[in-house]
Amino acid sequence: MQFHFIPKPVSEDTWTAGFTLDRVWADDAGLSQDISHLLDRTYMYHSPRELQWHLADRFGLAPQRVEVTSRA
Which of 25, 34, 10, 15 is closest to 67 using CA atoms? Predict the structure, then answer.
């Protein structure tokens, strides 16, 4: 399953300092849905990989089946 997200930087250097989520979409079989309301958008992620594991856990998926891309 593919997820696209817009990070909200905690500082100028987004990938070093971390980020929170501004918006998140799930794409499955060509259908895109905004799922931002289902996630804690105040949690600070340290990497897209951490977000990948969180999404896998949240939606009961194997981490290898989750793909995340940033629309920063």
Answer: 25
In sequence order, what are the beta bridge partners of 5? 24, 70
Give the domain range for residue 34.
2-70
pTM for this predicted structure: 0.84
- Which region holds residue 26: left if phi is over 0, alpha if psi is between -120 and 50, else beta? beta
Please answer whether residues 63 and 52 qualify as being in contact, where contact means their C-beta atoms are separated by less than 8 angstroms: yes
Q: Indicate the number of domains in the chain.
A: 1
pLDDT of the chain, 72 residues: tens digit per residue: 999 999 987 766 555 678 899 999 999 888 899 999 999 999 999 889 999 999 999 999 999 999 999 986
